[in-house]
Amino acid sequence: MSKEERNITWQQSSLSRHARELHNGHRSRALWFTGLSGAGKSSLAFALEQHLHGRGVRCYVLDGDNVRHGLNRDLGFTSEDRQENLRRIGEVAKLMVDAGLLVLSAFISPHAQDREMVRQLFEPEDFIEIYVQCSIEECERRDPKGLYKKARCGDIPHFTGISAPYDVPEDPSLIIDTEQLPLDGAVQKIVQYLELTGALQLPLAPTTSQIQSEYV
User: Does the annotation mark 109 as catalytic?
Assistant: First the structure.
């Protein structure tokens, strides 16, 4: 059903994204952490959030387990449910970027086509895919939540890396190897990338024509 058939219209705020970025003192971006369970996605995202918060950057982590407590508690782990899980989170992340925030999304997101679906919601410079690389052997050795043990026993179906595939990103913005980099070093590598790409810089003040176009 189209938007017209549902009788819905996007209501435009009087505040632009650019105005919010200027107020926050930095640009807004969506950082998408993908990798196997146990690779360190959540640990890295929350450590980065703490670092950025200390620098006055307005940011928030969307964690895979956390969103399944509420927003996506009706979804399972089939391919279809995983796709819907990511579609919802992608839309939430898009709203947060429009709000002028850095949003850090930590999800296994095993299928390349689903990650591409999320990427297409954003302008190219707004979406930063971070592949948190770690071998299945090391992830299983860590097994912080005991999930691999349950998956090996058949208690968890559709478990990525055991009974379900993971598509390794072909061209991510960054690769963070958590078997080689300590947590602090991984955070610094991401921060350096954000600095080099201008994400942490104050946006340029809009020109008169830009202001006029935003409020016409």
Answer: yes
